[in-house]
Design a protein that fits this description.
This protein has about 260 residues and is α/β, with parallel strands linked by helices. It has seven helices and nine strands. The mean pLDDT is about 95. The structure holds ligand LXAUTJHC. This is 6-phosphogluconolactonase.
Amino acid sequence: MSTAPQLVVHRDKELMAQAAAARLITKIVDAQASRGSASVVLTGGRNGNGLLAALAAAPARDAVDWSRLDLWWGDERFLPEGDPERNITQAREALLDTVPLDPKRVHAMPASDGPDGADVDAAAAAYAEELARAAGPENHGPVPTFDVLMLGVGPDTHVASLFPELPAVRETDRTVVGVHGAPKPPPTRVTLTLPAIRAAREVWLLAAGEDKAQAAAIALSGAGEIQAPAAGAYGRSRTLWLLDGAAASQLPRSLYPPASA
Ligand SMILES: O=C1O[C@H](COP(=O)(O)O)[C@@H](O)[C@H](O)[C@H]1O
């Protein structure tokens, strides 16, 4: 069942990143207190990396037990290990190299020079198996119940590497698929599918900047998920849109009324 989106609009993208980082720290600490460990799915893109950089700069980051955190990715650009355009390379630079993570709990999506070579579909299947191995009987299917799954929203409403009208966004069975011919470079990618995204307890969609305004308005105004993939991203218990004022500027008044004078 879908959870209705809740909106939080911050003044600007810096404040949004700082507030989202604070929110994430609290979620991780709470999950570790109640379940022993936490699992978070990271996103690439400007807003996702902004959040990680804000987290790296937050003194409260020391409240997290980094050794009891599983990190997964929502999507990856299918490029060689260490390529500066890979989402994990950017995440390492922004945060991961500065905190004491357990390397066994950092679940990178495969690279194009990994065990499956340039076969992106085999790489996607391998990641699906890794997720399935991590899922326990308490989970609802072949993916763990992630505590928080974050998604950047592209100006075309794409989330992860689910682009409008491409086959990946229509996938109802597999949890991870290879993407061929993405409109945003690089064309070859690996992505979680909507069913895998919806296994998360909380899904957070990050949208800051004027170039996200139209996408946010479309996705939050009842568009279909095939045309607007962000509209199909929701969590089991919560779906949270974290926006800045610029990204919220085209939302219908019923969703985001103008502040009273
Ligand atoms: O290519 C990608 O783009 C989206 C959105 O990125 P942004 O820079 O427009 O915020 C991102 O969420 C995704 O993970 C990434 O692979």
